[in-house]
Each structure stands twice: as structure tokens, then as C-alpha cells.
Amino acid sequence: MKKVSCLVQAMLNHDGICLFTNDGKLIGYHLIVDNKTMTENQIVGGARTKAFKKLVSENAIFAVLMKTQEGLIQFNKQGNEER
To answer: Could you write out the DSSP letters of every residue in the chain?
Structure first.
């Protein structure tokens, strides 16, 4: 189990996003969110903030966790009023 947690930690330290299914299976990592995708509101912020806000706006995504380079951590799951 330690090897798996080390691997996941290494994946999370790379640029891009990691996608997991609801039961924890890895779908992909080091994926980049298209910042040119149209959303209801213009997204302001760095690449990670833009990716976080875009993913939160997608109904197919159940939960989003982001850690900025400065160490700020944000989490959102479907149904949160803070979307």
C-alpha cells in the first residue's frame, strides 16, 4: 500500500490534474484543462484556479480538490452551495 500512496503523491505533484472514479480507480493524470472552453462566467486566476473552477462547473465531475503552488487547498463536491 505504501508504494501506491507514493505513486499517487508523485502524480499529484505534477502539473495538470488527476482523475479518479468514485471507487478510486485512476482514469488519467497530468491532464490539462482547456482554458479556452466557454463557461457561463469568465474565469479569472492562474491555471490551477481556472482548471478548478471549470471542473467544478461540470456536472459529470463529482468532486474537485486543488492545491495551489502557494499551498492554498480548495475542495468542492456536487451539491455544495459554494459552487
So the answer is: -HHHHHHHHHHHTSSSEEEE-TTS-EEEEEE---TTS--SS---S-HHHHHHHHHHT-TT--EEEEE-TT--EEEEETT-TT-
